[in-house]
Amino acid sequence: MEQKPKEISELRQDPVSRDWIIISTARAKRPEAYKSKNSEAVITPIDLCPFEDPQKHGNGEPLLIYKKNGSRDWWVQVIKNKFPIVEGDKCGLENKVGPYTVQNPAAGRNEVVVTRDHGRSLAQMNTDEVTLIIKAYKERYESLKKEECARYILIIHNHGREAGASVSHPHSQILALPFVPSDIKRSLDGSKKYHQDSGRCAHCDILEWELKEKSRIIFENDLMAALVPFVPKFSYEIRIFPKRHSSYFQDISEEETAALAEALKISLAKIYQGLGNPAYNFFIHTPPTSHNKEYDYYHWHLEINPRLGVWGGFELGTGGDVIDTDPDEAAKYLRNIKV
User: Fold this and answer.
1) With contact defined as beta carbons under 8 Å apart, do 88 and 107 qualify?
2) What CA–CA distance (Å, rounded) separates 61 from 55?
3) Which CATH number belongs to the domain containing residue 220 in this structure?
4) How many angstroms separate the Cα of 131 from the Cα of each of 79, 291, 307, 318?
5) Can you give the pLDDT at residue 21?
6) Rounded CA separation 7/325 (Å)
7) pTM for the model
8) Residue 280 included in any domain
9) Residue 78, in any domain of the structure
10) Is the pLDDT of residue 78 over 60?
11) DSSP code, position 120
């Protein structure tokens, strides 16, 4: 029987966000096309880098330090952001400005997680080094969630200028926010609706299907799975899920921490080698800090979004995404990258 040709355009809806995206491979590029665009990374000169020696450059004393086994020097340190997005304890001070609601000041906390090497990104680190970074995420999460204004803890990592990293020295940020971000709220609401309709966890169903299909899995170990989602927001997007159902990132075990580090390091190394070190953002989606059974339906995960294109009028006008690379082809390409 003659095989039906694959359509070059297809609409897909995410079962959690309910967002529609368009897979449009008519304008697809070969993966190699991204390499020339991203091969010239902008590096902050080491003598001007505020994170090369954080205390020498006027940052306060570390809130947390981790050292590698056998090392006398620090490998990871967490410091307060000198230029915080949010800062202070006076949350909930709202007033009206015309039809708008304003909180002034923007309360919360903003910390920076800095690694020792000036020019070596997470993709170039080993699993033990990445494990210490994730341990720092968890320890600071546990501390910040006690803050009065910390309704939500956001953990983000920006790599490359196009992704918002103004300093090239590898660093992540942790923000304690006095509100639940709208993207998180939509993810929570969608997961709750799916659970109400089916009695099951949406992400567990997605993960079970993906592990059975195998076509979009790029890496897995006993505890974590990294995959290109069937409904991505970005070309070559990767999401990493714990295989056991777990609502809160802060509940990650020591074994899962090492497994997540391995999955994250390998995923980023595949992007680094396969796409020529593009800019990317990654962040952790987890429920608000009120650790209770209210969010049992949710499944925490980490999302990696390579910044390979620019939003045009369609994306800005609709809030939807046009993906120019078939997720199956993206996963196949990344899966075959040896790291």
Assistant:
1) yes
2) 7
3) 3.30.428.10
4) 19, 24, 25, 39
5) 75
6) 13
7) 0.92
8) yes
9) yes
10) yes
11) -
Q: CB-based contacts of 229: which residues, under 8 Å, 6+ apart? A: 14, 206, 216, 237, 239, 327
DSSP 214-230: -TTEEEE-SSEEEE--S
Angle between helices 327-335 and 254-275 (to 10 degrees): 100
Can you tell me whether residue 134 is helix, strand or coil? helix
Please state the domain count of the chain. 1
Q: Which residues span the domain enclosing 110?
A: 9-335
Q: Tell whether 2 is covered by a domain.
A: no
Distance CA 239, CA 133 (A): 18
Beta-bridged to residue 219, according to DSSP, are 226
Q: How far is CA 151 from CA 145, 146, 183, 288, 326, in A?
A: 8, 10, 15, 6, 37
For residue 338 the two structure tokens come to 């040896």
Residue with tokens 């000198």, as numbered in its chain: 82
* 85 phi/psi in degrees, rounded to 5: -75, -40
Q: Is the pLDDT of residue 284 over 60?
A: yes
* Cα gap 282→302, rounded to integer Å: 7
CA distances 127 to 113, 225, 261, 283, 293, Å, are 17, 16, 6, 18, 32
What average pLDDT score do residues 5-34 get?
Answer: 74
Rounded to 5°, the CA angle 121-268-303 comes to: 115
Residue in the structure block whose two tokens are 């290109």:
228
* Residue 4 within a domain: no
What's the residue count for the chain? 339
Percent of the chain with pLDDT over 90: 69
Extended strands (E) in the chain = 9-13, 20-24, 64-66, 76-80, 94-97, 100-103, 109-115, 152-159, 171-177, 217-220, 224-227, 238-242, 280-285, 301-306, 321-323
Give the Cα separation of 327 and 120 in Å (integer).
Answer: 29
